[in-house]
Design a protein that fits this description.
- The chain is an alpha+beta fold and 222 residues long.
- The protein is built from eight helices and four strands, in the order ααβαααβαβαβα.
- A four-stranded antiparallel β-sheet has the order 1-2-4-3, sandwiched between helices.
- α2 (23-33) crosses α6 (139-156) and α3 (52-68) packs antiparallel against α7 (172-179).
- It is globular and about 60 Å long.
- Bound molecules: flavin mononucleotide.
- Flavin mononucleotide binds next to β3.
- Flavin mononucleotide (FMN) binds at residues 11-12, 14, 92, 117, 163-167, 189, 207.
Length: 222
């Protein structure tokens, strides 16, 4: 697949077919994607892949925790978005809820949508990216971000869809316990991965981007 085509084609997939993703395919995706750049070639990423009963257990326990009213993202400072960033967040939610036929006042369906994220969007596999806690350099997050996008692009060549998300990590201790990730590792982000179900309404979403003119300053050009 042409690189520009892949970049343009990639979108977040939030509904998947049940077909499992072969381990060998995922291995190939990681083999390609770990060509991503990292500061000083430190390659600070660690990948944990969950599927089958392990992923089902994470889904079940995540939803149980949510229903119990447990604190989301414990220990993480999270500042709400403001201004244009908040507006974009709201626009995204409106678009998704419209496609999914979820009314603004329908608390039950909104809660169900939230649970879907905690269930890794019912994908057949989940990828959890972590890094050693000794890596406090800010470049570590940049490096892992670069791996995230490269995994999503490489996956396209295998007919796979992805959704980068942090909802699966709202209760990190659940994921740690079930996937066996020690406290010495920082859980950074996860990806739901599988074969897209193109009939799933939210997969029809085409998000917009601000035009380049609005965000680019050209210096030293005519
Ligand atoms: C760091 C990061 C975290 C994200 N977390 C979530 C999430 O928790 N739930 C979700 O549905 N999508 C999540 N997304 C997907 C974004 O909503 C999506 O990338 C954005 O709306 C642009 O849409 P596109 O990926 O279809 O181009 C996340 C994406 C990134 C990069």
């Amino acid at each position: 697949m042409d690189i520009v085509e892949a970049i343009r084609l990639r979108k977040s997939i939030r509904g998947f077919k049940r077909d499992p993703v072969p381990k060998e395919v995922l291995r190939e995706v990681f083999d390609i994607a770990t060509r991503a750049p990292s500061a000083m070639n430190t390659q600070p990423w660690e990948i944990t892949v969950v599927a089958g009963e392990v992923l089902d257990k994470i889904r079940e326990r995540n939803v149980e925790m949510l229903r119990s009213g447990a604190t989301l993202y414990p220990g993480l400072e999270s500042k709400p978005y403001e201004g244009v960033y908040r507006q974009r967040q709201v626009d995204l939610a409106i678009q998704i809820f419209q496609l999914m036929g979820i009314a603004r006042e329908d608390k039950e369906k909104r809660a169900e949508w939230m649970q879907r994220g905690l269930r890794f969007f019912d994908a057949p596999a989940g990828i959890i990216l972590s890094a050693d806690k000794s890596l406090t350099q800010s470049s570590t997050l940049i490096d892992i971000g670069s791996l995230l996008q490269t995994i999503c692009l490489a996956a396209l060549d295998y007919g796979l869809g992805t959704c980068i998300h942090d909802q699966g990590l709202m209760f990190p201790d659940i994921v740690r316990e079930i996937a066996g990730i020690p406290q010495s590792k920082r859980l950074i982000m996860c990806i739901a991965i599988g074969y897209p179900d193109w009939d799933f309404p939210a997969n029809k979403l085409e998000t917009k981007r601000d035009p380049v003119e609005n965000l680019t300053t050209w210096c030293g050009f005519d």
